[in-house]
Amino acid sequence: MLVWGTCLRNVVSQGRYLDLIQGMTPIKRGFFDYLADTSLLTTNPRAIMSFGGNLFGHPHQTSLGMLNQLTIRNYVLVDHLDISFAPGLTGITGESGAGKSILLGALGLLMGERARTDSVRPGAAKADVSAEFGLRKDSALHQKLLADELIEVDDDCCLVRRVISAEGRSRAFINDVPVTVNYLKEATEYLVDIQDQDQHQRLSDRHVQRNMLDEYVQAKPLAEKVGTLWRDWQSSAREIERLQRAIAEQEDRKNLLNYQLEEFDAIGIADGELATLETEHKRLAQAQSILAELSQVQTSMENLDDLRQATKVLEGIDDSHSALDAGVETLNSALALIDDASRDLRHYADQVIVDPQTLADTESRLEQLYELARKHKVQPERLAEHAQRLREEFDAIASDRSSLEQLTAQEQEQQRAFAAQAEKLSSLRKKKAASFQSAVGEQMHALGIKEGELSIVFHAQESEHGLEQIEFHVRTNKRFDAGPLNRIASGGEQTRINLAIQIVAAQRSQLPCLILDEADVGVGGTTADTVGRILRDLAERSQVICVTHAPQVAARSHNHMCVVKREAETDITALDPEQRVEELARMLAGADVTDKTRDYAQTLLNEAHQGGK
C-alpha cells in the first residue's frame, strides 16, 4: 500500500494518472482516486494503509462459501450484467424502482425457485443466470459434490447455473453438469441464505435452528456422537425385526410342512401303489364284460369236435408224403395250443372277480390320492417323491434363536448408550439455551425491536438428533404470546429477527453468504447506524450482501454498489469513493443534493471506516 502511495505521487506529478488507472477494477480505481486527494497524499503511510485495509481488506470469515461472481443474461430488464463480489459487507443501493429486486430474483432462481416465463427478457429466447461461489474444502457441500462427482478434490469453487426458456422450461447445472432443480435447491441452501420481507426459508427450518443452537453451545461433537449411537441402535433394531420376521416365517413354514407330512403319513402312500390301484380298478370296473367275453370265447374254443375228427381222418390216410405228415403235425400242434389257451383263459376267468365293494374301495383310495396330488399341485405318480422332498425341507429348517438373543442384548446396550448421551446433550442444550436466547434478545433490541424476545421450545421427540425437536419462538410485543419465526411479526421485523439470530449464531457457526433485503426497513437514525455496525461485524465472519435504503448502513459497508435504471435497462455498478459520497448524499437528501449533504455523507464514510468499524 505504501508503494502504491509513493507511485501515485510520482505519476500524479508526471500527469500520467489516467494511464495508471485505466483497466483497473472500479473498486481499485476508486481507491487510487481517493489517494489522489491532496489530503491523503500528505497523510502518513499508516493512515493510507489503514484506509486501504478497509477498502481492500478481506475480513476474517468462516463462512461455508462466498459469492464471487454473478452473471445475468436476458433476465427481466437485464440484457447482460456481470457483478463481482468481495468479502465482507456489500451495500446495494439505488432509487426505488431501479431494479434492486432483480439481484434477489436472479439468486432466487439459482436457489431453485419456480421459473416463470416473465423471467425472460422480452424478445429473448431464454434467460441465463449463473454464479460462482468460493467453496471451503472442509464443508459438507464440498463433500456432497465430491461424492456425486460434481467437483474435484482440489476444487475450491463451484459454478451454479439456471437457464429458463421463453416457454417456461427450466434447466439447472452445477459445474456444467445437468442436475435436477431439487438438487440445485439442496446444494445452494449451503451457499446462500436470502432474507427478505416475504421469504424466510432457512431460519424457519427446525434442523437449521437445532444446528445453530448446537454450534453455539459447542455441542456439535456430542450431537454427532448421539447421531451415530442412534443410527447404530436403529440398525440393530431393524436387524432384530428382520430376524424375527425370518424366524416367524421359518416357524410358519415348519408348521405347514409338519401338517402336510402328517397328512401324507396318514394316507400312507406305498411305492408303486398308484399303478397297482389303477390296474386293479380297471379290471374290477370291467369284470362283468370280461367274463362274458371269456365265456363266449371259451364256448367257441370247446366246439372243436369236427376239427378233431378231421385230424383222425387225415391220420388214417395211408401215404407217407411229407406234406401230409407236416399238415397233420401242425394241426395236432394247433389243437394242443388251443387246449393250452383254453386252460389259461379258464385260469384268468377264475381271477376276474365281480366285487362291487372292492371296486368301491379302490375308487375311494384312488380319489384320495388324486385329491392329494391336486392339493400339492403335483402329478399323482410323483406323490411319494414330493412327500420325500417335504420331509427333507422340514428336517433342514432350524430356527436358530441364538443370534437373535445376542443381537437383542447388543441392541439394548446401544439403546442405553444412546439414552445416556442424548440425555447429556439435552441437558447441555437446555442449560445453555438461556444464554443464546438472551444474546438474540439483545441483538433484537439493538435492531429496534425493543420488546423482542427469543424463546427456544423443546418438543419431546426421540430421534437421531437427541431427545427433543427444537423450535425457535419469538415475540415482538409482551402483550402477545410467542410463536414460530415464520408466523410472528411483520416482514421487516422478521428480517431483523433473523438477522439478530444470524449475528449470535455467527460467533460459533459457519454461515452461508447472507443476502438481506432492507433489513433496515422501518428504522433510521441511531438504530440504522446500529444495524450497519452489526452487519459490518457479522461480515467479519460471513459474506453479507445488503440491499438498503439507509445511508448509515450503506456507509458501513466494505463495498458499495448502486443499481441504476436507464430506460428499459438495469445496471449494477461498483462505486468509487467519490461516487459513494454522491450516492450517500442522494440517500440523505433525495433529489436536492447540496454541498452540505455531501459533507455529511463524507462524514458518515469517515466515521464508518475509522478503525474499520
Describe the structure in brief.
The protein is of the alpha/beta class.
The average pLDDT value, as a whole number, equals: 80
The residue ranges in which pLDDT falls below 50 over 5 or more consecutive positions are: 1-58
**Anisotropy-based shape:** elongated
Strand arrangement in the largest pleated sheet:
2-1-4-5-6-7
- The total of helices stands at 22
Strand elements, count: 15
Biggest sheet architecture: 6 strands, antiparallel
First-residue to last-residue Cα separation: 20 Å
Strand content: 15-25%
Helix content: 55-70%
Structural class: alpha/beta
Radius of gyration: 49 Å
Task: Write a structural description.
Helix content is 56%, strand content 16%. It contains 22 helices and 15 strands. The longest helix is centred in the middle third of the chain and has 48 residues.
For the structure shown, list the relevant keywords:
single chain; six-stranded antiparallel β-sheet; 15 strands; 22 helices; 613 residues; six-stranded mixed β-sheet; elongated; disordered N terminus
Layout of strands and helices, then pairs:
Elements: H1 2-14, H2 17-21, H3 26-36, H4 38-41, H5 45-56, E1 65-75, E2 78-84, E3 89-93, H6 100-110, E4 126-135, H7 140-147, E5 157-165, E6 170-174, E7 177-179, H8 181-188, E8 192-195, H9 206-216, H10 220-267, H11 273-285, H12 287-302, H13 305-315, H14 322-351, H15 356-376, H16 383-396, H17 402-446, E9 453-463, E10 466-475, E11 483-484, H18 491-506, E12 513-517, H19 525-538, E13 544-547, H20 551-556, E14 559-566, E15 569-574, H21 577-589, H22 595-609
Parallel strand pairs: 3-13, 3-14, 8-12, 12-13
Antiparallel strand pairs: 1-2, 1-4, 4-5, 5-6, 6-7, 9-10, 10-11, 14-15
Helix pairs in contact: 3-5, 10-16, 10-17, 11-15, 12-14, 13-14, 17-18, 18-19, 21-22
